[in-house]
Design a protein that fits this description.
By secondary structure, the chain is an all-alpha fold. Helices cover 58% and strands 0% of the residues. The chain is flat, with a radius of gyration of 34 Å. Keywords: Membrane, Transmembrane, Transmembrane helix. Residues 114-145 are annotated as: Disordered.
Protein backbone atom coordinates (compact mmCIF):
# COMPACT_ATOMS: atom_id res chain seq x y z
CA UNK A 1 0.00 0.00 0.00
CA UNK A 2 1.32 3.39 -0.98
CA UNK A 3 2.01 5.48 2.08
CA UNK A 4 1.32 8.69 0.17
CA UNK A 5 -2.32 7.83 -0.45
CA UNK A 6 -4.71 10.04 1.43
CA UNK A 7 -7.35 8.51 3.66
CA UNK A 8 -9.70 11.41 3.14
CA UNK A 9 -9.31 11.22 -0.64
CA UNK A 10 -10.09 7.50 -0.53
CA UNK A 11 -13.20 8.13 1.52
CA UNK A 12 -14.44 10.89 -0.78
CA UNK A 13 -13.78 8.82 -3.91
CA UNK A 14 -15.73 5.96 -2.39
CA UNK A 15 -18.88 8.07 -2.54
CA UNK A 16 -19.03 6.39 -5.95
CA UNK A 17 -19.03 2.71 -4.86
CA UNK A 18 -15.71 1.01 -5.55
CA UNK A 19 -13.58 3.99 -6.60
CA UNK A 20 -12.15 4.42 -3.12
CA UNK A 21 -11.12 0.76 -2.99
CA UNK A 22 -9.44 1.02 -6.41
CA UNK A 23 -7.56 4.11 -5.21
CA UNK A 24 -6.55 2.30 -2.01
CA UNK A 25 -5.17 -0.66 -3.99
CA UNK A 26 -8.02 -3.20 -3.63
CA UNK A 27 -8.87 -3.32 -7.31
CA UNK A 28 -10.86 -6.57 -7.39
CA UNK A 29 -13.01 -5.48 -4.46
CA UNK A 30 -13.46 -2.05 -6.01
CA UNK A 31 -14.67 -3.46 -9.33
CA UNK A 32 -17.16 -5.69 -7.53
CA UNK A 33 -18.58 -2.76 -5.54
CA UNK A 34 -18.78 -0.69 -8.72
CA UNK A 35 -20.38 -3.30 -11.01
CA UNK A 36 -22.98 -4.65 -8.56
CA UNK A 37 -24.96 -1.37 -8.24
CA UNK A 38 -24.63 -0.82 -11.99
CA UNK A 39 -26.14 -4.23 -12.80
CA UNK A 40 -28.87 -3.72 -10.19
CA UNK A 41 -29.93 -0.39 -11.67
CA UNK A 42 -29.82 -1.61 -15.27
CA UNK A 43 -31.62 -4.85 -14.42
CA UNK A 44 -34.24 -3.05 -12.34
CA UNK A 45 -34.88 -0.59 -15.16
CA UNK A 46 -35.28 -3.35 -17.77
CA UNK A 47 -37.58 -5.41 -15.56
CA UNK A 48 -39.64 -2.31 -14.76
CA UNK A 49 -40.03 -1.57 -18.47
CA UNK A 50 -41.02 -5.17 -19.26
CA UNK A 51 -43.41 -5.61 -16.32
CA UNK A 52 -44.70 -2.01 -16.53
CA UNK A 53 -44.25 -1.67 -12.79
CA UNK A 54 -42.06 0.43 -10.54
CA UNK A 55 -41.37 -2.39 -8.05
CA UNK A 56 -38.26 -3.83 -9.83
CA UNK A 57 -36.72 -0.37 -10.11
CA UNK A 58 -37.40 0.29 -6.43
CA UNK A 59 -35.71 -3.01 -5.52
CA UNK A 60 -32.73 -2.09 -7.70
CA UNK A 61 -32.36 1.30 -5.96
CA UNK A 62 -32.68 -0.34 -2.52
CA UNK A 63 -29.99 -2.88 -3.43
CA UNK A 64 -27.72 -0.10 -4.70
CA UNK A 65 -28.08 1.78 -1.42
CA UNK A 66 -27.28 -1.38 0.53
CA UNK A 67 -24.13 -2.02 -1.53
CA UNK A 68 -23.11 1.63 -1.07
CA UNK A 69 -23.34 1.39 2.71
CA UNK A 70 -21.39 -1.88 2.73
CA UNK A 71 -18.73 -0.33 0.48
CA UNK A 72 -18.38 2.73 2.73
CA UNK A 73 -18.12 0.61 5.87
CA UNK A 74 -15.52 -1.61 4.22
CA UNK A 75 -13.59 1.49 3.15
CA UNK A 76 -13.58 2.85 6.71
CA UNK A 77 -12.28 -0.47 8.02
CA UNK A 78 -9.56 -0.52 5.36
CA UNK A 79 -8.24 2.99 6.02
CA UNK A 80 -8.33 2.59 9.80
CA UNK A 81 -6.55 -0.77 9.93
CA UNK A 82 -3.05 0.10 8.75
CA UNK A 83 -0.51 -2.52 9.87
CA UNK A 84 2.06 -1.77 12.53
CA UNK A 85 5.68 -2.74 12.14
CA UNK A 86 8.22 -1.99 9.41
CA UNK A 87 5.51 -1.23 6.87
CA UNK A 88 3.72 1.30 9.08
CA UNK A 89 4.21 4.93 8.06
CA UNK A 90 6.51 7.12 10.12
CA UNK A 91 4.82 8.71 13.12
CA UNK A 92 1.93 6.22 13.18
CA UNK A 93 1.23 4.78 16.62
CA UNK A 94 -2.00 2.93 15.96
CA UNK A 95 -4.67 3.44 18.57
CA UNK A 96 -2.21 4.06 21.40
CA UNK A 97 -3.13 7.13 23.48
CA UNK A 98 0.46 8.35 23.50
CA UNK A 99 3.61 8.07 21.45
CA UNK A 100 5.84 5.07 22.29
CA UNK A 101 8.60 5.80 24.80
CA UNK A 102 12.13 4.56 25.16
CA UNK A 103 12.57 1.94 27.92
CA UNK A 104 14.79 4.36 29.82
CA UNK A 105 12.30 7.18 29.59
CA UNK A 106 11.47 8.89 32.88
CA UNK A 107 8.35 10.88 33.73
CA UNK A 108 10.40 14.08 33.80
CA UNK A 109 13.38 13.43 31.52
CA UNK A 110 14.53 17.04 31.71
CA UNK A 111 14.41 17.37 35.47
CA UNK A 112 17.93 16.09 35.86
CA UNK A 113 19.20 18.65 33.42
CA UNK A 114 17.36 21.47 35.16
CA UNK A 115 18.68 20.47 38.60
CA UNK A 116 22.24 19.81 37.41
CA UNK A 117 22.30 16.16 38.61
CA UNK A 118 23.25 14.82 35.19
CA UNK A 119 26.62 14.94 33.58
CA UNK A 120 25.76 18.00 31.55
CA UNK A 121 27.89 20.96 32.67
CA UNK A 122 26.10 23.93 34.17
CA UNK A 123 27.65 27.32 33.64
CA UNK A 124 26.77 30.62 35.18
CA UNK A 125 25.48 32.06 31.95
CA UNK A 126 23.29 29.02 31.18
CA UNK A 127 19.56 29.75 31.45
CA UNK A 128 17.31 27.97 33.93
CA UNK A 129 15.76 25.75 31.30
CA UNK A 130 18.00 23.90 28.83
CA UNK A 131 18.29 25.41 25.38
CA UNK A 132 19.46 23.90 22.15
CA UNK A 133 22.96 25.17 21.36
CA UNK A 134 23.69 25.62 17.69
CA UNK A 135 26.79 27.85 17.93
CA UNK A 136 30.28 26.69 16.99
CA UNK A 137 31.68 24.19 19.42
CA UNK A 138 28.38 23.89 21.34
CA UNK A 139 26.42 20.69 21.86
CA UNK A 140 22.69 20.34 22.26
CA UNK A 141 21.88 19.40 25.85
CA UNK A 142 19.23 16.83 24.88
CA UNK A 143 18.65 13.57 26.74
CA UNK A 144 20.31 10.52 25.16
CA UNK A 145 16.90 9.07 24.15
CA UNK A 146 13.74 10.30 22.43
CA UNK A 147 11.38 12.07 22.46
CA UNK A 148 13.52 15.18 21.96
CA UNK A 149 12.33 18.66 22.82
CA UNK A 150 11.71 21.13 20.00
CA UNK A 151 14.33 23.62 18.91
CA UNK A 152 14.62 26.57 21.29
CA UNK A 153 12.72 25.21 24.28
CA UNK A 154 13.25 22.36 26.68
CA UNK A 155 9.50 21.55 26.80
CA UNK A 156 7.37 19.23 24.74
CA UNK A 157 4.78 20.88 22.54
CA UNK A 158 2.35 17.97 22.51
CA UNK A 159 -0.26 17.29 25.14
CA UNK A 160 0.23 14.34 27.50
CA UNK A 161 -2.36 12.39 25.47
CA UNK A 162 -0.92 12.24 21.97
CA UNK A 163 -3.48 12.98 19.22
CA UNK A 164 -2.39 10.62 16.46
CA UNK A 165 -3.07 10.84 12.75
CA UNK A 166 -5.66 8.07 13.01
CA UNK A 167 -7.57 9.99 15.66
CA UNK A 168 -7.41 13.09 13.50
CA UNK A 169 -8.78 11.13 10.55
CA UNK A 170 -11.60 9.74 12.70
CA UNK A 171 -12.45 13.29 13.72
CA UNK A 172 -12.67 14.33 10.07
CA UNK A 173 -14.95 11.38 9.27
CA UNK A 174 -17.21 11.98 12.27
CA UNK A 175 -17.43 15.70 11.51
CA UNK A 176 -19.74 14.88 8.58
CA UNK A 177 -22.40 14.66 11.30
CA UNK A 178 -22.41 18.08 13.04
CA UNK A 179 -21.05 17.78 16.57
CA UNK A 180 -19.74 14.20 16.52
CA UNK A 181 -16.20 15.27 15.66
CA UNK A 182 -16.17 17.68 18.60
CA UNK A 183 -17.50 15.00 20.95
CA UNK A 184 -14.74 12.63 19.77
CA UNK A 185 -12.13 15.25 20.72
CA UNK A 186 -13.72 15.69 24.13
CA UNK A 187 -15.33 19.08 23.40
CA UNK A 188 -18.71 18.16 24.84
CA UNK A 189 -20.28 21.62 25.08
CA UNK A 190 -19.30 22.59 21.55
CA UNK A 191 -20.38 19.25 20.11
CA UNK A 192 -23.76 19.34 21.84
CA UNK A 193 -24.25 22.91 20.58
CA UNK A 194 -23.79 21.81 16.97
CA UNK A 195 -26.01 18.77 17.44
CA UNK A 196 -28.77 20.86 19.02
CA UNK A 197 -28.50 23.59 16.38
CA UNK A 198 -28.66 21.19 13.43
CA UNK A 199 -31.14 18.55 14.53
CA UNK A 200 -33.13 20.91 16.77
CA UNK A 201 -33.75 23.34 13.90
CA UNK A 202 -34.68 20.46 11.60
CA UNK A 203 -37.16 19.05 14.11
CA UNK A 204 -38.70 22.45 14.85
CA UNK A 205 -39.21 23.34 11.18
CA UNK A 206 -40.69 19.94 10.30
CA UNK A 207 -43.00 20.11 13.32
CA UNK A 208 -44.20 23.61 12.42
CA UNK A 209 -44.81 22.58 8.82
CA UNK A 210 -46.85 19.51 9.82
CA UNK A 211 -48.71 21.25 12.65
CA UNK A 212 -49.71 24.35 10.67
CA UNK A 213 -50.00 22.70 7.28
CA UNK A 214 -47.78 25.40 5.76
CA UNK A 215 -44.81 24.23 3.74
CA UNK A 216 -43.36 27.74 3.76
CA UNK A 217 -41.45 26.99 6.97
CA UNK A 218 -39.40 24.42 5.06
CA UNK A 219 -37.71 27.31 3.25
CA UNK A 220 -35.63 27.90 6.39
CA UNK A 221 -34.06 24.45 5.95
CA UNK A 222 -31.59 26.33 3.77
CA UNK A 223 -29.86 27.35 7.00
CA UNK A 224 -28.89 23.72 7.70
CA UNK A 225 -26.09 23.54 5.09
CA UNK A 226 -24.52 26.62 6.68
CA UNK A 227 -24.49 24.95 10.10
CA UNK A 228 -23.21 21.70 8.60
CA UNK A 229 -20.33 23.29 6.68
CA UNK A 230 -19.36 25.52 9.62
CA UNK A 231 -19.38 22.58 12.04
CA UNK A 232 -17.31 20.38 9.72
CA UNK A 233 -14.60 22.96 9.08
CA UNK A 234 -14.55 23.94 12.75
CA UNK A 235 -13.95 20.32 13.74
CA UNK A 236 -11.19 19.91 11.14
CA UNK A 237 -9.49 23.11 12.31
CA UNK A 238 -9.65 22.10 15.97
CA UNK A 239 -8.31 18.64 15.13
CA UNK A 240 -5.31 20.25 13.44
CA UNK A 241 -4.66 22.45 16.44
CA UNK A 242 -4.96 19.49 18.81
CA UNK A 243 -2.51 17.43 16.73
CA UNK A 244 -0.01 20.30 17.04
CA UNK A 245 -0.27 20.06 20.82
CA UNK A 246 -2.36 23.15 21.51
CA UNK A 247 -4.67 23.17 24.49
CA UNK A 248 -8.30 23.37 23.33
CA UNK A 249 -10.91 25.16 25.36
CA UNK A 250 -14.40 23.66 25.42
CA UNK A 251 -17.06 26.35 25.05
CA UNK A 252 -20.50 26.45 23.48
CA UNK A 253 -21.44 28.45 20.40
CA UNK A 254 -23.25 31.07 22.46
CA UNK A 255 -20.19 31.54 24.65
CA UNK A 256 -18.07 31.94 21.54
CA UNK A 257 -20.38 34.66 20.27
CA UNK A 258 -20.19 36.38 23.64
CA UNK A 259 -16.44 36.76 23.14
CA UNK A 260 -17.18 39.28 20.39
CA UNK A 261 -19.21 41.52 22.66
CA UNK A 262 -18.11 44.95 23.66
CA UNK A 263 -19.03 46.92 26.75
CA UNK A 264 -22.61 47.55 25.60
CA UNK A 265 -23.32 43.82 25.30
CA UNK A 266 -23.78 43.67 21.51
CA UNK A 267 -22.20 40.82 19.58
CA UNK A 268 -21.13 41.40 15.98
CA UNK A 269 -21.34 37.68 15.27
CA UNK A 270 -24.94 37.59 16.41
CA UNK A 271 -25.65 40.65 14.28
CA UNK A 272 -24.20 38.91 11.21
CA UNK A 273 -26.35 35.85 11.83
CA UNK A 274 -29.50 37.91 12.32
CA UNK A 275 -28.81 39.72 9.04
CA UNK A 276 -30.28 36.67 7.28
CA UNK A 277 -33.75 37.88 8.36
CA UNK A 278 -34.40 41.36 6.91
CA UNK A 279 -34.60 43.95 9.69
CA UNK A 280 -33.67 41.63 12.55
CA UNK A 281 -30.03 42.75 12.72
CA UNK A 282 -31.07 46.42 12.64
CA UNK A 283 -33.45 45.89 15.55
CA UNK A 284 -30.74 43.97 17.46
CA UNK A 285 -28.35 46.92 17.05
CA UNK A 286 -31.01 49.35 18.27
CA UNK A 287 -32.16 50.69 14.88
CA UNK A 288 -35.80 49.96 15.61
CA UNK A 289 -37.45 52.19 13.00
CA UNK A 290 -35.25 51.08 10.12
CA UNK A 291 -35.42 47.42 11.13
CA UNK A 292 -39.20 47.42 11.54
CA UNK A 293 -39.74 49.04 8.14
CA UNK A 294 -37.42 46.59 6.41
CA UNK A 295 -39.16 43.63 8.05
CA UNK A 296 -42.64 44.94 7.17
CA UNK A 297 -41.55 45.68 3.62
CA UNK A 298 -40.09 42.18 3.09
CA UNK A 299 -42.78 40.00 4.65
CA UNK A 300 -45.60 42.37 3.65
CA UNK A 301 -44.53 42.27 0.02
CA UNK A 302 -44.52 38.46 0.06
CA UNK A 303 -48.03 38.36 1.53
CA UNK A 304 -49.50 41.01 -0.75
CA UNK A 305 -47.99 39.54 -3.91
CA UNK A 306 -49.31 36.11 -2.93
CA UNK A 307 -52.83 37.34 -2.12
CA UNK A 308 -53.14 39.48 -5.24
CA UNK A 309 -51.48 36.88 -7.46
CA UNK A 310 -48.86 39.32 -8.75
CA UNK A 311 -46.21 36.78 -9.67
CA UNK A 312 -44.77 39.23 -12.18
CA UNK A 313 -43.52 41.40 -9.30
CA UNK A 314 -41.88 38.57 -7.33
CA UNK A 315 -38.47 39.85 -8.44
CA UNK A 316 -38.90 42.61 -5.85
CA UNK A 317 -38.65 40.12 -2.97
CA UNK A 318 -34.98 39.12 -3.53
CA UNK A 319 -34.11 42.76 -4.22
CA UNK A 320 -35.52 43.76 -0.82
CA UNK A 321 -33.70 40.88 0.88
CA UNK A 322 -30.31 41.73 -0.62
CA UNK A 323 -30.74 45.42 0.22
CA UNK A 324 -31.60 44.60 3.84
CA UNK A 325 -28.77 42.05 4.09
CA UNK A 326 -25.99 44.30 2.84
CA UNK A 327 -27.33 47.27 4.76
CA UNK A 328 -27.17 45.12 7.91
CA UNK A 329 -23.57 44.18 7.11
CA UNK A 330 -22.67 47.86 6.82
CA UNK A 331 -24.37 48.68 10.10
CA UNK A 332 -22.55 45.82 11.88
CA UNK A 333 -19.24 47.04 10.45
CA UNK A 334 -19.90 50.57 11.71
CA UNK A 335 -20.97 49.36 15.14
CA UNK A 336 -18.43 50.29 17.81
CA UNK A 337 -16.49 52.57 15.46
CA UNK A 338 -19.00 55.33 14.84
CA UNK A 339 -22.45 56.14 16.19
CA UNK A 340 -25.35 54.48 14.40
CA UNK A 341 -28.25 56.65 13.22
CA UNK A 342 -31.71 55.12 13.21
CA UNK A 343 -32.75 56.60 9.85
CA UNK A 344 -36.01 55.06 8.59
CA UNK A 345 -36.52 54.18 4.96
CA UNK A 346 -39.47 56.59 4.72
CA UNK A 347 -38.36 59.87 6.28
CA UNK A 348 -41.63 61.72 5.56
CA UNK A 349 -43.92 59.01 6.87
CA UNK A 350 -46.36 61.58 8.32
CA UNK A 351 -46.83 63.21 4.92
CA UNK A 352 -47.55 59.85 3.25
CA UNK A 353 -49.87 58.55 5.93
CA UNK A 354 -52.97 59.28 3.80
CA UNK A 355 -51.69 57.29 0.84
CA UNK A 356 -50.77 54.40 3.09
CA UNK A 357 -54.32 54.49 4.47
CA UNK A 358 -55.77 54.30 0.96
CA UNK A 359 -53.59 51.28 0.23
CA UNK A 360 -54.67 49.47 3.38
CA UNK A 361 -58.37 50.25 2.77
CA UNK A 362 -58.20 48.94 -0.81
CA UNK A 363 -56.47 45.73 0.29
CA UNK A 364 -58.94 45.30 3.15
CA UNK A 365 -61.96 45.65 0.84
CA UNK A 366 -60.55 43.12 -1.58
CA UNK A 367 -59.82 40.68 1.27
CA UNK A 368 -63.36 41.04 2.65
CA UNK A 369 -64.81 40.49 -0.82
CA UNK A 370 -62.76 37.34 -1.34
CA UNK A 371 -63.13 35.71 2.09
CA UNK A 372 -66.62 36.84 3.21
CA UNK A 373 -68.81 38.09 0.37
CA UNK A 374 -68.01 35.37 -2.16
CA UNK A 375 -68.52 32.43 0.27
CA UNK A 376 -71.80 34.01 1.43
CA UNK A 377 -73.04 34.28 -2.15
CA UNK A 378 -72.13 30.64 -2.83
CA UNK A 379 -74.03 29.48 0.24
CA UNK A 380 -77.22 31.58 0.15
CA UNK A 381 -77.39 33.07 -3.34
CA UNK A 382 -76.23 30.34 -5.72
CA UNK A 383 -77.89 32.15 -8.62
CA UNK A 384 -75.25 34.87 -8.30
CA UNK A 385 -72.39 32.41 -8.72
CA UNK A 386 -71.38 34.18 -11.90
CA UNK A 387 -69.76 36.83 -9.67
CA UNK A 388 -66.83 34.46 -9.21
CA UNK A 389 -65.95 35.19 -12.78
CA UNK A 390 -65.58 38.86 -11.82
CA UNK A 391 -63.02 38.19 -9.06
CA UNK A 392 -59.94 38.26 -11.35
CA UNK A 393 -61.14 41.51 -12.88
CA UNK A 394 -61.74 43.05 -9.45
CA UNK A 395 -58.25 42.02 -8.36
CA UNK A 396 -56.70 43.48 -11.49
CA UNK A 397 -58.67 46.69 -10.99
CA UNK A 398 -57.41 47.06 -7.41
CA UNK A 399 -53.83 46.50 -8.49
CA UNK A 400 -54.15 48.94 -11.40
CA UNK A 401 -55.61 51.65 -9.15
CA UNK A 402 -52.80 51.20 -6.65
CA UNK A 403 -50.12 51.40 -9.33
CA UNK A 404 -51.70 54.43 -10.98
CA UNK A 405 -52.16 56.17 -7.63
CA UNK A 406 -48.57 55.49 -6.68
CA UNK A 407 -47.35 56.80 -10.02
CA UNK A 408 -49.29 60.06 -9.66
CA UNK A 409 -47.95 60.45 -6.13
CA UNK A 410 -44.34 60.09 -7.34
CA UNK A 411 -44.95 62.57 -10.18
CA UNK A 412 -46.45 65.08 -7.79
CA UNK A 413 -43.55 64.71 -5.36
CA UNK A 414 -41.04 65.16 -8.17
CA UNK A 415 -42.66 68.40 -9.32
CA UNK A 416 -42.57 69.80 -5.80
CA UNK A 417 -38.90 68.91 -5.46
CA UNK A 418 -38.02 70.70 -8.73
CA UNK A 419 -40.06 73.76 -7.73
Amino acid sequence: MNRQRSKLAALLLNLVPGLGHVYWGNRSRGFIYFLLPLFMLIGGGLLAAIAESDAPMALGIAGTCLVWFISMFDMLVAVLSRPLGPDAPYGYYGHAPSAPRHPGYAEDPYGAYRSGESGAPRTADREEEPRAGFGPGEEADYPPYPPYPPVGDGRMLREPNYFSDVQRFCTVVLSFVPGLGHLYMGLVQRGVSFLAAFFGLTTALVFLSIFTGEETFLMFLGVLPIIWIYGMFDAVQLAGRKSRGEQLRDFSLIERWDMGRDGSGKSRTMGLLLAIVPGAAHMYLGLMKRGAQLMILFFGSIYILDVLGLSIFLFLVPLIWFYAFFDALQQVGRYGREPLVDKPLLDNFEANRGWLGVLLVALGLYYVLKTLVMPFIDLYLPTLGFLHELEPYIRNAVVALLLIGGGFKLMKTGRRARA
